[in-house]
Structure formats: structure tokens, C-alpha cells
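<instruction>
Derive C-alpha cells from the sequence
<data>
Labelled lines for chain and fold:
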Amino acid sequence: MTKKLPARTGASGTRASGTGAKPAKLAAERIREVARDLFYRQGIRAVGVDEIVARAGVTKPSLYRSFASKDELAAACLRDRSEEFLRRFDAALSERPDDPRAGLRSWLQTLSKKAMKADYRGCALTNASVEYPDRGHPARLVAAANKRAFRGRLRSFALQLGVADAEALADALLLLVEGAYVSGQLFGRDGPARILADAADALIDAYRVRAKFAAIPEAPGSGRRVEA
């Protein structure tokens, strides 16, 4: 009877082909995954490189071969979160192309439920901008780019509604979302985040009324608007 030899593992941590086993994660993947969770739970500044490599089961040289510094690792983790966030937002709105307002409400309801959980830590990108006031810091740059991209998407959404001031509505919605990120951490289950979707509806309705009012012509010489 031939004795079965154990599967060989390459230097990268990947099992040799032909075994049918799932490849092990590369060191860079493990580092990124562990750092992403630690940075979110504890804050970027509070987490040291020693803790990251210990939890990832790798060495410091492995970390620095993949990331030039802890700052660059933080920026990479935030880029992952930014891409995931924008992808989820786009997907929610694309589910209802005929009714973008319903798509936004669905996304806000999901955020509301998330913000009321006991372990909620807010938005990682917003948190990073608070941790790093230096506008040139790699983490701050990623956070700022994400917020600009999200603001642009909200403006595109508002334009579809035909409101009087789409940019103002978009910024009002952005302020509402950012408020949910912070209040969710402070108040939890019974906090203001529970009415996030309803508050957004009220904002949208208010701007739509403004649009309707602006479309009513003024009576000649009276300064008052008169419905046709």
C-alpha cells in the first residue's frame, strides 16, 4: 500500500495544485483583512503593526513587503471600504430604475438597521477623516475622495427628481446620512437613526413643494404667486 504524501505548500502559503484543496490566503490578504477589522473596531491610530501581524499570523517583513507603511495599509483598507460602499449604493438605486426614490429609501432603511446595532462604529471613512486632520494624509485623502463621490451620486439622484435645487437637496441628504453615522454610535437602538428613511422622505417632499411653488407665476404687480 502506497503511503499518501502530505500536500506541499508553496512559499506564498498556497497549497500545491492537484490536491483539490482551497488555496490558503496570501499574507497580504490576511494582513488587509485583519487590519480592516481592527482599524474599524479600535480606530486606526490605536492599532499597532505588532498587533496586526500577530493576529494575521505573519511577520513584519511580510507586511512591509506589501505595504510601504501603516499609513499606506490604512489607505488600502479604506479604499476597499469605499469601493464596497459605493457599489452597494449604486446597486440599491439600480434595483428600481423606474423609481430612484424607492431605491434610496431601501438603502437608507438598511443603513438605519445597521446603525442601531450594538456594535456599530459608524462610517470607517468618516472616522478616518476625524482621526487624521492633516488633509494630505493617505487615509484622509481616501476618505475625502469617497465623500466627494457619494455627494456626486446624491446630486445625480436629486436631479432625477426634478426638484427646485437639486444640489441643496443632495447636501441635505448627505448631512442626514452623516448624522446617522455619528448618532448610531451614541444612541444605538432607540436613537435618531431609526427615522432616517422617514426623515429623508420629509426632506425630499419639502424640496418638491419648493419646486412646485417656484413654478407658479407671480400675479402682475402684486409680488404674489397665483396658481393657474
